[in-house]
Amino acid sequence: MADHSEVAYTTADGNDYIAHEATYEGFIKLVKYGTGTVIFVVAMMAIFLT
Known about the structure:
Layout: H1 8-11, H2 17-48
């Protein structure tokens, strides 16, 4: 069997955790504000189109 004593991503060269965290924060903001926008649009449609 393979030796699993060391996790590969902790020793790999070229990992940019700062960029990874910035991208993740941007994604979370996009989901948060996107969800709010969709809820707002649906609520306005319910009010003005009925």
